[in-house]
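Our consortium's second objective concerns turning raw sequence data into structural hypotheses that experimental partners can test. To show how far this objective has progressed, the report includes one record in full. It was chosen at random from the queue rather than selected for favorable results. The single chain below, 97 residues long, was entered without modification.
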Amino acid sequence: MRPQHPLLEGERVSTRSRMLGMTDFANGIATRVAPEAALYPNVDLTASIFREPVGEWFGLDTSVSFGADGTGLTESVLSDETGPLGTVSQTLTVRPR
């Protein structure tokens, strides 16, 4: 994916900020159940990167797990045009709609 809109109109935004701005999409990319059947918002987001991102395009290789007690976890590997550069994890609260 490639962020299309600036974080602040008229301000230059770093490549790192552009990439981190799209990390919250991870929970909506890979779903375990249809959004019409359950709600599963994330209650936190932790990003860890081991190098600076480069380029315009970013990727999220995402998996989602639900526990039996109404919690879940979204985990993603962050990548740019040259390969992996970090991870993102999100704790979920899972409720029937």
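The partners drew two points from this record. The longest strand covers residues 83-93. The chain has one domain: 15-96. Both points have been shared with the crystallography group to help prioritize constructs.
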